[in-house]
Specification:
Elements (H helix, E strand, L loop, with lengths): L19 H18 L3 H12 L3 H16 L1 H11 L10 H17 L4 H15 L4 H12 L8
Length: 153
């Protein structure tokens, strides 16, 4: 075969994904990888955004979360330790820890989404990537963070 002619077309349509849920998902995956392997944040985010097929706006939102969590990680971790004293941060599953970091960043710093939306999104990410106990744990910690309101499983 030669390399002449048009490039082969993918077998599936190239749909760009927008919205905050895929962006939060990418932010979680990026923060998890950084936490796990000390990977370069920008490179990890770019690779993930490409693989996920995110729109420019969704990728930018993901990066704003990643950058914000990294910038405020110390304060976020201190709050997590206060909210869940029976679970030391270094023993908490990385997924749960990063889901909580993202949600607390959105609640405390970004402030551009209602608490109920932030908590629902965090619980969904915990369901997708965490253990069986993760959604309930994340919901409980975040409900405490916003004043004890339960938002559902």
């Amino acid at each position: 075969m030669t390399s002449e002619g048009p490039a082969p077309r993918p077998l599936w349509p190239q749909v760009r994904r927008g919205g905050r849920h895929p962006a939060r998902r990418l932010a979680l995956q990026t923060l998890f990888e950084i936490d796990f392997s000390r990977a370069d944040p920008n490179e990890t985010w770019q690779r993930g955004a490409f693989r996920a097929g995110l729109t420019e706006d969704a990728a930018a939102f993901a990066w704003s979360i990643i950058g914000g969590v990294l910038e405020h990680r110390r304060q976020l971790d201190e709050e997590i330790a206060t909210l869940a004293p029976e679970f030391p941060l270094d023993q908490m599953p990385r997924i749960d820890r990063n889901v909580l970091r993202i949600a607390l960043y959105e609640l405390r710093v970004a402030g551009d989404a209602p608490a109920s939306v932030v908590i629902d999104e965090a619980v969904e990410l915990a369901k997708l990537f965490g253990s069986e106990a993760s959604p309930k744990f994340v919901n409980g910690v975040l409900a405490t963070a916003v004043g004890g309101r339960e938002t559902g499983p």
